[in-house]
Structure formats: structure tokens, C-alpha cells
Design goal:
- The chain is mostly helical.
- The termini are far apart.
- It comes from Parazoarcus communis SWub3 = DSM 12120.
Length: 64
């Protein structure tokens, strides 16, 4: 009985340790996703701006 309790205690400690590790990893991943989403938004805005400038330049070109 004592050995079973010791074994269960060890398993519980491993589970808690794994939970803490995964919780930290999840927090890091959420931060990374938020940062990448902000970067994607900035890049999308730059692409839109560049597209507008190109369209304006194309409109100024004489037709062949």
C-alpha cells in the first residue's frame, strides 16, 4: 500500500511538472502568435500602400 502511494505521488508530481511546463510554453506561444499577427498586419498595410502607389504610377503612364 505504501509503495502504491509513493508511486502515485511520483506520478502526480510528474503530472504537475508537465502541466507547469506546458502552461509556460502555451503562454510563450500566445505571445508569439500575437507578435506575428501584429507583424502580418503591418506587412499587409505596406503591401496595400505599395499596390496603391503602383496603380497610381500605372495610371500616369501613356498608353502604347
Amino acid at each position: 500500500m505504501d509503495a502504491e502511494l509513493t508511486h502515485l505521488e511520483a506520478q502526480l508530481e510528474q503530472l504537475i511538472s508537465q502541466y507547469d511546463r506546458l502552461k509556460g510554453e502555451n503562454r510563450e506561444l500566445r505571445t508569439r502568435v500575437a507578435r506575428l499577427d501584429a507583424e502580418r498586419h503591418q506587412l499587409s498595410a505596406k503591401v496595400e500602400l505599395a499596390t496603391g502607389k503602383l496603380e497610381a504610377l500605372l495610371a500616369k503612364l501613356p498608353e502604347a
